[in-house]
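New to this. Help decode both lines:
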Amino acid sequence: MTRQEVVISDQLEQALTTAMKKCEYDRVFILADETTERLCVPAIEKVDGLGSAYHIVIGATDACKTLSSLTHVWEELGKGGGTRHSLLINIGGGMVTDLGGFAASTFKRGISYINIPTTLLAMVDASVGGKTGINFGGLKNEIGVFGNAHTVILDTQFLQTLDRENICSGYAEMLKHGLISGEQMWAELITFDLEQPDLAKLRQMVADSVAVKERIVEEDPTEQGIRKALNLGHTAGHAFESFALRHKPVLHGYAVAWGLICELYLSTVKTGFPSDKMRQTVSFIKEHYGKMTITCDDYPDLFELMTHDKKNTSGIINFTLLGGIGDIRINQTATKEEIFEALDFYREC
């Protein structure tokens, strides 16, 4: 894959103008959801070349990250005269950047695209790293491709528009980055006041968090090895998220936070992760994310969802665990009994 450029800026129009000048294109398309079309697209409309851009709007929330939404984007690209030399600008949260990146990577066998993430989750995770896709068959991100954006513009001014839940959702991925990075970053993250966040400090923490992901993705762009570190919390987390889709959907970061509880427990019993640091992290998660109510009767369904995880090989559930802060252990396995014990810990902690 071509390397993507990540730009952290508080001058969105200037950053987008520069990014567009680096692309050769014949037509520009803007993809947004119903919320970001109204609240965020006006922030870029004055950029040269966007006055005649073709707007494509899809429904908001992860429930719209579907094949039918993807088909709609493909159809609109065709209707708007898109060619393999066109440019797509995705402005929105992770659902928009994931789906838009997939649409761009497959339309005419691939067109250039720029991501402008508008949520903390999209800034530190979804929009960076080249993973694109949609949900399918009740499973998270089941269909997709690796395809880097030409440029990802992180405009931290959007943080001022986010509610508590969306700040917390993105922060869970930052917490994961701290766990796989080092003790200093982890300690800063679990002592940060997430209820009354200092946005100036958070902006710098976003830059540090994105740098962790960039470093790992650059080393292993297609997840053959160390990029699996970024899956910490996600084997259990995606199961929680997919399970919730059957009942009441939850934000991705909340599911990842709950997945971290399970996988830090497994790390403690299987790979020697320090129990005091596990308890500190779990306490932070419980305080800010609560827990999804599950019973023992739900364990088989959650286990079955884990068997569909994309990291698995030959039906064996694959985890990324830790031997300590920054001590990454990829390609770890756990028995059904051990996974059920982790779910017991999650319910009882």
